[in-house]
């Protein structure tokens, strides 16, 4: 039987058989016999499809869209007989250049398709680009033939997640990673056994949308180092994975390699969250390059001042106009694509508060984009996490429009825990609130503790090691005379600034790192670890490491051998969290007393049992979690007693009675040297004296009743 | 250098031998052989790649096509691929869809 011809050419343009296309989906889509090209522009007067042979500077052909191929504001055309493996494409738009009205059309530029799923031009990380290339970020046609082999999301409830934030290249680029494909998705896949053994169940990948590591690249005059846009918080292609992170990028197979990574992580029970940057693009301000949006329809895509300049709420030159309905649909399309085509389990939105600003930049009470994302049917199982502030002064931790879905990076958790850790007084009350899931922020509106992504360190700022080794930032290598980066680090160097050989200092640092890890992993809410902190990764005091493709950024796996006790401690703390549902409530704990145990869900203590010290001088907090009421009493768990002594001297803590028929066992005591600092859950030794214990200076004690 | 290719069918196995460079310009040649093999209702397909020096993404796409065209019941073997070719197959995840084997093992393939 002959195949019925459904779509056939009606026109010939520039020697190619074509016909009017379909406006949806946007982008380049394979259809029988050809490729459907569809692109939006409201204000363009004319548009051409520009075709290239792979890698060629000069176009192969230019196909102007006839007027009848434009439906509404969408240019669409099916081109037949293309060798889809061999071509690249872009668009040339004509229209007004009138910045005061927001228009910056320039028909001399070739523009990348914002829906391109595959981009060539930066195929190999760090390969010097041809700066004179008229079309540097080249759209290609993608295939959907990946075999997922039945893959599905692990579907881990938010409260059970242990997030591990990492940069794909940093994770394995150091030779000590001992992987075959260093610095790539494939290299990360080789480390899956390590992640499994550590116990984390979600990796959060710093930006992996195509970016240009050479954007604003410059040479540090003092060191001669070439500084890059290493982190990649500046998107070139929102639908395209970063080719330079793929061992197969030079073959254009980054889609397959990344999907393979996701599939393998899922097989290991590990979810994948992407750090996504929708607040701005790589086009910068009015002096920046034409990559795509500026030349496609500047006025639609960017928030502009009345004079037509770019508002800079992102601190990066421009601000994406996220609540313009067209842009909103673009963001939604993009996230749906990653959820559906890459099986991504969640998204962390960089400077998410920008997503809640209106067309003039004012914060909205009910931002349509955030609402759309929260209720989207395709994203309904994805975790949505906001970095709930922006560089324009909006700070929404605790008040981000959540629609019952959004969680937030809890910056207050980080700040309070850091201050408490370094021995500041008067924080016992704040810390009690933080470790119980920040009810002050997420209790009043029924969001619950899982709205709180708890962290002590993240890619921004000091690593955990540097938090306890530096009082101030040391960003000289960034080439800005140490002016960049935050000054509010709430860090303490334990007596010596930077690298030290003093045993006393080093021992204290180890203990402080364990203290921070213990506080993070017992806290209600969702813990997030920074990759490498489990073996004391250092950036030598640099707290704004965005530009270094050097050992300053790369994880040095040799340190795992230098800090085996810390690594073991982190692993056991994760296992402990997993073993005790009482640490993972979905509602904030209260003082409600159980008739079964006679204990409140949570009670606070000090050096005297049942007498918490919330005074302005206090450096001490202890609390008891009633295991009988874990998850509202629906699952059996042990009762836990947790004590933080952030005073520098040892203090005797009088212990509350353990529940009847049980005795206190020591799970962790950071005041003890390894291996007695922590035990495997279930193998904790019994505490000889049950009514009191001496807790060392700056130490954390965790007891289990069984 | 171009691609030389051949197809040989026997014992319910289709042996496709490829030598030279498999890229976008030569992938169709490979694809035609896959089509012919599929028409013969074989139980296994063996891709003999000892003399294949380079495989571009277009070539890998044909392997995916072969997998789909043959159906799950037909085993697909990649035999004797050079390290650079094998590496590409592994890293891009296609090794899940095929069985990699250093040399033609009749006992396994023709069983």
Structure notes:
The complex is a heterodimer of chains A (706) and B (111). Chain A is α+β, with helices and mostly antiparallel strands and 706 residues long. Chain A has four domains: 11-140, Sandwich (Immunoglobulin-like), CATH 2.60.40; 159-409, TIM Barrel, CATH 3.20.20; 415-437 and 459-578, no CATH class; 590-705, Immunoglobulin-like. Chain A is 19% helix and 21% strand. Chain A is built from 14 helices and 32 strands. An eight-stranded parallel β-barrel of chain A has the order 14-15-20-21-22-23-24-25. In chain A, helix 6 (325-341) packs parallel to helix 7 and helix 8 (411-421) packs across helix 9. Chain A is elongated and about 90 Å long. By secondary structure, chain B is of the alpha/beta class. Chain B has one domain (3-103): Transcription Regulator spoIIAA, CATH 3.30.750. Chain B contains four helices and five strands, in the order E-E-H-E-H-E-H-E-H. In chain B, strands 1-2-3-4-5 form a five-stranded mixed sheet. In chain B, helix 1 (27-39) links the parallel strand 2 (13-22) and strand 3 (44-55). In chain B, helix 1 runs parallel beside helix 2 (57-70). Chain B is globular. The N and C termini of chain B lie far apart (36 Å). The model of chain B has no long low-confidence stretch (mean pLDDT 90). Chains A and B meet through helix 4 of A and helix 2 and helix 3 of B.
Q: Structural class of the helix and strand makeup of chain A?
A: alpha+beta
Calculate Rg of chain A over CA atoms. 27 Å
Overall average residue pLDDT of chain A = 96
Main sheet specs of chain A: 8 strands, parallel, barrel
In the CATH hierarchy, what is the architecture of the largest domain in chain A at level 2? Alpha-Beta Barrel
Helix content of chain A: 10-25%
CATH topology descriptor of chain B: Transcription Regulator spoIIAA
Q: Outline the biggest β-sheet of chain B.
A: 5 strands, mixed
Could you give the distance between the termini of chain B?
36 Å
Fraction of residues in H or I helices of chain B: 25-40%
CATH superfamily of chain B: STAS domain
Shape of chain A: elongated
Task: Give the N-to-C terminal Cα separation of chain A.
Answer: 74 Å
Give the strand content of chain A.
15-25%
Query: So what's the overall shape of chain B?
Result: globular
DSSP summary: helix tally of chain A: 14
CATH superfamily of the largest domain in chain A: Glycosidases
Low confidence ranges of chain B: none
Strand order of the largest sheet of chain B: 1-2-3-4-5
According to DSSP, the number of beta strands of chain A is 32
Unreliable residue stretches of chain A? none
